[in-house]
């Protein structure tokens, strides 16, 4: 198939490698001219996953409209806060039959929208042409061809089956789901809990605290997710528990790393000064706003928001969380 991958960061690069290895013809759009040049001339992305040699069947393009103009499938992998602008640039060139697979994990702060909502607002696609891809997938491991599983969520069973068959390989196993809302929210909200998990590690709170945080984090993710229309089972699946475990405990997580550095006492500006994106930072604010709007209790998310807003220190947040009023576990 003709595939466009929009977004030349780590995940866009890894997905391009995966798609090319699966036998598809891939055009990768990258915003940085040095990435386009490096991919086309040296078969590597100099900024993101520079250690990976890119397979044949993959070229890069600096004009997003040109990149998507012949695509049957577009993987959209732009960080959520920048997504709207890129969607506008590619809108006119997107072929009418193309399916858009969003692989970004976050909530837009300005509108409190999920990616399926942002795409609908900007492109006006029929719902069957939108699919979300989520799950425990560190880009570096996927690019290395290590085994991974993820979920495709969409409203058209035929599109889901087509994508599942075209993009599953012996090292990348795709499942189907009809729960777009649940899969999108699970993937976005786990990034916030991963920041908290990293903080617990940075503060040296031990394994018990991390396990408690992860469990209670999943509980509050599901509470908001179900209130907004997600299916409860989705939060126990690959996009929910699977990705939460990976991101809270895996050394490759950028969100976890942000939390760990804050927990160790590094200043926020220094922690956020790198090139890579930690979606949990803006999404903490969006998730907390959505929770307040829908009167959903999300104490860990509220604590992460307060720390990022510098209203609370990580140590004060631990005390605040541990001394809340006592509850039923399943409340
Ligand atoms: N890296 C992973 O392992 C992984 C896995 C699954 C999902 N994701 C998701 O994929 C999405 C992309 O993350 P990534 O890891 O590929 O990014 P990255 O952190 O590796 O790279 C940052 C990306 O942001 C882009 N960017 C920066 N400023 C921009 C702007 N003003 N306008 C448009 N783009 C801009 C850069 O060009 C680059 O592509 C995120 O939503 C992330 O949560 C990442
Ligand atoms: O590195 P992170 O924290 O953005 O996590 C990457 C992926 O979402 C893991 O599935």
UniProtKB/TrEMBL annotation:
Binding site for NADPH: 10-11, 31, 105, 139, 254, 277, 279
Keyword entries, A-Z: Cytoplasm, Lipid biosynthesis, Lipid metabolism, NAD, NADP, Nucleotide-binding, Oxidoreductase, Phospholipid biosynthesis, Phospholipid metabolism
Biological process according to GO: carbohydrate metabolic process; glycerol-3-phosphate biosynthetic process; glycerol-3-phosphate catabolic process; glycerophospholipid metabolic process; phospholipid biosynthetic process
Domain of life according to the entry: Bacteria
Name of the protein this chain belongs to: Glycerol-3-phosphate dehydrogenase [NAD(P)+]
Residues holding NAD(+): 7-12, 82, 139, 254
Binding site for substrate: 105, 254-255
Residues annotated as the enzyme's active site: 190 (proton acceptor)
Catalytic activity, as annotated: sn-glycerol 3-phosphate + NAD(+) = dihydroxyacetone phosphate + NADH + H(+); sn-glycerol 3-phosphate + NADP(+) = dihydroxyacetone phosphate + NADPH + H(+)
Key word NAD present: yes
Listed EC numbers: 1.1.1.94
Gene Ontology CC: cytosol
Family, as annotated: Belongs to the NAD-dependent glycerol-3-phosphate dehydrogenase family.
